[in-house]
Amino acid sequence: ELARGAGADIVASVELSDGMSQPVDLTSHGLEGWSRVDGSCARGSGGDSAALAFAPGWNVLSSGGGCLRDDWDTRAMAVARVVPPSPVQGCSSLCVVAIHAPHARITA
Fold it and tell me: DSSP string covering 78-106, please?
């Protein structure tokens, strides 16, 4: 509802999870027809999640996700290379990232 009301083409979520590290399926929560990219991080008994969603008309060329640290401070990221419906400031493809910034430096 918020994404549609704001006219957003890209949505990011952090710590919106089913369980400890599985990102919520944004496409089943009002973003039907959108493409999604999940990033999860599970370490020991901890976990974290980040996700991206792209409005219809955006094409995801490649994507990934994972952990930003390799210790107990689990922090997730999701990244995608996408083609927007029309170029953005002359760029035919974009790299988009969602991160849950750690309290210390990124180590993974």
Answer: EEEEEE-SS-BTTBS-EEEEEE---SS--
What's the burial of 66, exposed, middle or buried (CB within 10 Å: 0-12/13-18/19+)?
middle
Pairwise CA distance, residues 75 & 3, whole Å: 24
Neighbours of 103 (CB within 10 A): 7
**C-alpha to C-alpha distance for 11 and 97, rounded to whole angstroms:** 11
pLDDT (tens, 9 = 90+) of the chain, 108 residues, equals: 778 889 899 999 999 888 888 888 888 888 889 999 999 999 888 899 999 999 999 999 999 999 999 888 889 999 999 999 999 999 999 999 999 988 888 888
57 near 24, Cβ under 8 Å? no
